[in-house]
Design goal:
This protein is an alpha+beta fold. It has one domain. The protein is built from 1 helix and 3 strands, in the order βαββ. The longest helix has 11 residues.
Length: 63
């Protein structure tokens, strides 16, 4: 069995719709042979100079 690996996509933005989906889809297209074991999502928000900044991280565990 192949070892478990992780790919982390992280994006900070003031935009509510970051381009994470495009990054993930491109990576999956480049790696069609992987076996996804689990996907995790983490979000946080902070106010900077009266702006709301969002940090979105998606972790893909795969073989």
């Amino acid at each position: 069995m192949q070892p478990l690996r992780a790919k982390i996509f992280s994006y900070c933005t003031t935009n509510i719709n970051p381009p994470g989906e495009l990054q993930i889809n491109a990576w999956l297209t480049e790696n069609p042979e992987i076996d996804i074991v689990q996907m995790l999502q983490s979000e946080s928000m902070v106010t900077i100079d009266d702006r709301l900044e969002r940090n979105l991280s998606i972790t893909i565990l795969y073989r």
